[in-house]
Amino acid sequence: MKNRLIELIIKKAFKYSNEPIFKLVSGRMSNYYFNCKAVTLNPEGMYLVGNLIFDIISGLDIHGIGGLTLGADPIANAVAYTSFLKEKPIEAFVVRKTAKTHGTMLWIEGNISSGDNVVIVDDVITTGQSTINAIEKANEAGLNIKKVIALIDRQEGGREAIESIGYELYPIITRDEIMAVYTKKYPNF
Length: 189
What we know:
The chain is an alpha/beta fold. The protein has a domain at 46-174: Rossmann fold. The chain is 39% helix and 25% strand. It is built from seven helices and ten strands. Strand 9 (144-153), helix 6 (158-164) and strand 10 (169-174) form a beta-alpha-beta unit. Helix 1 (2-13) packs across helix 3 (43-57), helix 1 (2-13) packs across helix 7 and helix 3 packs across helix 4. The two termini are 26 Å apart. The model has no long low-confidence stretch (mean pLDDT 95).
């Protein structure tokens, strides 16, 4: 499944240029870019992501899975759906980028409560700041974070930033793994 997911990412989500033309969230320019929504919103991609992550967390006592909207949402939904099919339901939740300004004014939406064991997910880790924001909001809500998972680690300091606040990052795929397959497929890139 992981090999097929790498193929899908290269086909649908990975862009490369000899010049740094891609602006990242951090403002930095890069030679490559991952638009993981093209994979996490794809039926086969959902299936692969849901199963790969469910297999990683299935031995844990987890009530919920989520992260900062929008990158984490399709991942959390895929895992929640997979968990139901495997008769071990896990709730999906969303961490907002800003607090809701009306009604309950919540940062986190979903069927989770203080004291619940959760997994924080993200699609791509670069600096780790989006994931750290989700971790902070989950902690403020009293959630017990049991695992932090990224679909792709760009290997640009995000893992170290997350680990510096006390959480180990478990990437499904690394930039090096993507580049190894990409360079074999396109040797003259």
